[in-house]
Amino acid sequence: MTHIRWGILGASKFAREHMGPAIHAARGAVLSAVASRNPASVGPFQEFAAECRALAGYEALIADRDIDAVYIPLPHHMHVEWTVKALHAGKHVLAEKPIAMQAEDFDNLIAARDATGLLAAEAYMIVHHPQWQRARQMVADGAIGRVIHITGGFSYDNSDDPQNIRNQAAMGGGGLRDIGVYVLGSARYVMGAELENISAKIRLESGFDTFASMQGNMGEATYSAYVSTRMHPHQEMVFHGSEGVLRLTAPFNANIFGEARIELHQPNLGLRVEKFPAANHYVQQVEAFGHSIRTGAAFPWTLEQARGTQEAIDKILAIGTELP
Fold first, then answer.
1. 67, 90, 123: which is the final residue of a domain?
2. Residues 267 and 225 occupy one common structural domain
3. Measured distance CA(127)–CA(122) in Å, rounded
4. Is residue 304 part of a domain?
5. What are the strands of the beta sheet with 29-35, ordered from one edge?
6. What is the full DSSP assignment across 224-266?
7. 228 & 274 share domain
8. What is the three-class DSSP state of 299?
C-alpha cells in the first residue's frame, strides 16, 4: 500500500482547518473523500486537495472501496457508533477524542478492533508531538529526579456560543470530555500510571460541566489540575521533582496558543529551554497512523490507554462535589 486513502465523516470546521490539511500534507496519505449531507461544504477541502471527492452521507463513505482509513470528527456521542460501523466495513479508524462517552463503551470498540484486525485509535494528537515525547523521556531519564507533584490547567471561554456542541449535554458537552482528556492523558502518558485516590469539585451548567478541579495520586506523585470552559484561555503542565521542574508552556495547542517549548529548571544549572517551532502534531499523527497500518508497529496511543483517561473522567463526574 503506497498511500493510505483517507475519508472524513463530516465537513466539520476542525476537520477543514486542521485534520483535512494534515492528511493532505502527511507523507504516504491522500485525502480521497469527505462525506456530507451538503456536498457544497466539501468545497473548502477541495481547495487544498483537488483529488478529494464529495460523498453524500456517512454510509456511502464507509462503503467506498477506494477508502482505506476513516477519520471521524463527529460530535462526541457519535464516535463509538461510527467507529464500529467503519471497522466492520473494512476501514481503519482514527476518531476524535473523546472516542467514547464512558469507559464501558471501550468494550465494543476493542471487540470490533480485535474482530476485524484493523487499526482503531483515538486522535490524541499530543502524544505525537516531539515536546511530549521529549518530556516523557526526560522524566524517565531522571532529569528532575523523583516526580513529587504534577499540576495542570487548561481553560477557554465559549459562553457566548450556546449552540456549540461543547455546550450541549446530549452531545457529550462539557469541559472534562473536551479538554480534561489533555490534563489527565498527558500526565498519564509521561508517568505511565493511572490517577488514583481521586477527589474533585465540579460546576455544572444545563447538565454539563463548565469547571472541574481534580486531585489524586499518579504513581508516587500527587496530582492537581483544573479545566474550564468559562475562564480566560490558559494552558500549562508542570512536573515538579526532587531535583528540578519540567514545564510545558503550550502543551495542548502547540504553536497556536503559544510556542511549543519545554522549560527545564535545575539547581546550579539554571534554566534550559527546548523549542519545537516546526512540529505539527496533526501531520505527525496521520503519518504515525499510516506507519502502523503498513508495518504493524504499535500506535503510540492505544484504545486501552484512552480507556484509562475515560475511567478517570467517569470517576470525577461521579464523585465530584458540585460547586454553586
1. 123
2. yes
3. 11
4. no
5. 53-55, 29-35, 4-9, 69-72, 92-96, 120-123
6. EEEEESEEEEEEEEEEEETTEEEEESSSSSBTTTB--EEEEEE
7. yes
8. coil
Of 115, 73, 80, nearest to 285 (Cα)? Answer: 73
Which residue is catalytic, options 85, 91, 97, 315? 97
Q: Considering 107, 123, 139, which residue would you say is the last residue of a domain?
A: 123
pLDDT band at 268; cut points 50, 70, 90: confident
- 110 and 131 co-located in one domain: no
Q: Are 130 and 221 in contact (CB under 8 A)?
A: no
For residue 268, what are the contacts with CB-CB under 8 A and spacing of at least 6? Answer: none
Locate 73 and state its grid cell.
470528527
Q: Does the annotation count 91 as an active-site position?
A: no
Q: Output phi, psi for 179, to 5 deg.
A: -125, -10
Question: Are residues 280 and 265 in contact, defined by beta-carbon separation less than 8 angstroms?
Answer: no
pLDDT tens track for 206-247: 999 999 999 999 999 999 999 999 999 999 999 999 999 999
| Structure-block grid coordinates of residue 160 | 457566548
3-state helix/strand/coil string of 54-69: EECCHHHHHHCCCCCE
pTM greater than the 0.85 cutoff: yes
Same domain, 176 and 251: yes
